[in-house]
Design brief:
The protein has ten helices and seven strands. Strands 3-2-1-4-5-7-6 form a seven-stranded mixed β-sheet, sandwiched between helices. With 249 residues, the chain is of the alpha/beta class. The chain binds S-adenosylmethionine (SAM).
Amino acid sequence: MEHRRSALRTAMVWDALHEALRARHLDVGANRPLQVIDLGGGTGGLAVRVAELGHHVLVVDPSPDALASLERRAAEVSVSAGVRGVLGDAATLLDEVQPASADVVICHGVLEVVDEPALALTSAATALVEGGCLSVLVAQRSAAVFSRAIAGHLADARALLQQRETSDSRADSAPRRFSLAELCELLASAHFTVTEVRGVRVFTDHIASTMVDSEPGAVEELHALEAAVATDPDFLAIATQLHLLATRL
Ligand SMILES: C[S@@+](CC[C@H](N)C(=O)[O-])C[C@H]1O[C@@H](n2cnc3c(N)ncnc32)[C@H](O)[C@@H]1O
């Protein structure tokens, strides 16, 4: 059951990315594979799926263990020729790739942990061709505040809320969280224009799993509900994650 829930959790992000890849592929003429960078791509869950579509994916990640898993995963589905992993990070990305060489950059779950999110986005922008697409997924602060508050952890909720006012929200080594406005500002500064905003896990993480898991059909119902509100601004603030698509100007 948990496996099915987690597959459904990632389905919406994959569907949006898949559509963005399809659109970008048409833009470049569809007669060659897309050059895709998965920055902080980890064990390659997404990279391998992108390679299965026939595109070329470079995963840049500082974890040797993650890259070893990526290699195994790619071999298992016979896409090793389409996926390459290199040890590196957001700060060294441009040592690995030429400027204006990528059609798509994926940056999921990474701005939370890098030293300088602004630098990571500038590097991504430099690696992309003009008109190239960035897919960025980040943890949203307001949802974390909300979930702590409704669980009765009120002091934690207030402390998290106040991170907004500190210049380094990773001072306690906890992952950084973003507001939509902060993320849009970072993207604009790095010369991206936002084309799509989606709330991911608007309800899923606020519901006790027993409530969903014990009810036949509830997982699918929850997925349908998530899909229905993903782009509704009224529900955005309680989404655990924000998924944005942006174009390199
Ligand atoms: C939460 S995981 C996300 C993995 C993958 N992108 C996903 O969505 O499943 C964060 C990843 O960022 C990588 N990472 C950590 N610091 C990084 C940095 N400075 N630059 C790039 N990636 C980094 C980690 O090794 C890890 O693979």
